[in-house]
Amino acid sequence: MKQIRKNILRYLALMFVPFIGSLLIRLIYLTSKKKFNLPENLDDENVIFCCWHGDLLMHPYLYYKLRKVQNADVIISDHFDGKIIAKTVVYFKLRTIYGSTNRNASRVLIKAIKTLKNGSDLAITPDGPKGPRREVADGIVVIAKKTKKKIVTLNSIPSSYWQLNSWDKFIIPKPFGELEFFASEPFSVDGLEIEEAKKLVKERLMIHAI
To answer: The pTM is what?
Structure first.
């Protein structure tokens, strides 16, 4: 009986939470003052966008500023919370690749590499889906080196926010505040050892981290 109740609640959550979440994200964005710090050297070549897992909520709008035409696949965990995020990003014209570079790694890496080779952007949270928080896993570096694609780090800093007591300390900006967005210049990890490349990605992500 307990499992049946759990399944019903999950079904209802998948039905309603993504739509409500998309409305909340739009409300936050529309009621906030915005400032965008954008790269000068981002051309039309597809890249790998990345942000910390706890800082992903508002980044669809930063992506809109970076790309006039939205064409991106987002790697999202196939856990239950990941499914909710996946259904939410659909409202922002983004596609999903289910899985993670830790779980079902080979399948996800193949799909991610195919995405980039087909000319789409790829978005990834290098510390997802379950942490450790703000530690870069191998996946983003492996994908970048295999495809020779550049990486762009994304950050957002709200003037006021709620922070959840989750492993990633997930940040929800409060409405009627200020949002400052940062996107780095594209950079390559080609030629670097795995650990050197991971350190570089982390350094870039930490420049504007809360």
So the answer is: 0.93
